[in-house]
Write a structure and sequence with these properties.
By secondary structure, this protein is α/β, with parallel strands linked by helices. Helix content is 36%, strand content 23%. The chain is globular. The chain binds S-adenosylmethionine.
Amino acid sequence: MPSAGDQPTSVVYTDRWIRYYDFVVLTLSTRLVWGCPEPRLVDLYKRNLGPRHLDVGVGTGKMLDTAARSAGRAGLDELHLLDINADPLKLTGQRLRRFSPITYQADALGTWPLEDNTLSSVCASLVLHTLPDDGRGFAAKASFFDQAARVLVPGGRFFGSTIVSDAPFARRNPLARVLMSVYNRREIFTNSRDSSKDLRAELEARFTNVRVRVRGCTAIWEADAR
Ligand SMILES: C[S@@+](CC[C@H](N)C(=O)[O-])C[C@H]1O[C@@H](n2cnc3c(N)ncnc32)[C@H](O)[C@@H]1O
């Protein structure tokens, strides 16, 4: 199983770089490069955040924090945060400390250290495109979907967003094409084979009421656990 330090993203998601994340990625890149502005991604959280929530691949926790504020203290009872890297977990844990989050430093492609059928929502926001795929696209990320299905209660909500490459559904502007190619070469992204069609197939194999939309080259999904 890969651990933090084995993978290229571990160099990016450190205290040194992550301080720029909110502005560079969430404010600028979501809008100008990936075609799905931050407020849309926050709305996704607001629509789906449940009282017992797990966030996987937490980054800085900014959008989760914004959505949790609008849900109010009663809207979120139990918060779990899982990430392979220590610094995002620390930062997000501090940002959301009012919920006394439980943190797990673990690989999202391994077995999540959480009980079966316990959570009301799981979110993977802007994470799947960073996970390694052995050249197989979403099929190599299947265990992620298995784990989300396992930990959710029936009817619980799985939601998230990921950057995809499939034409004609994903519209990549010239900047998106260049950055995606550079990030894939440096293995900061592994999404050159990720398509919204395959994403839908992985979701439909495990969940009901699957909704997938593509804005720019960002696929957004919402689905219910069986
Ligand atoms: C692009 S950030 C997304 C942050 C946040 N969810 C957001 O929407 O702004 C990707 C996050 O996934 C984490 N990550 C990358 N690979 C991972 C893995 N194999 N297992 C768990 N977390 C991982 C990184 O440490 C980072 O916090």
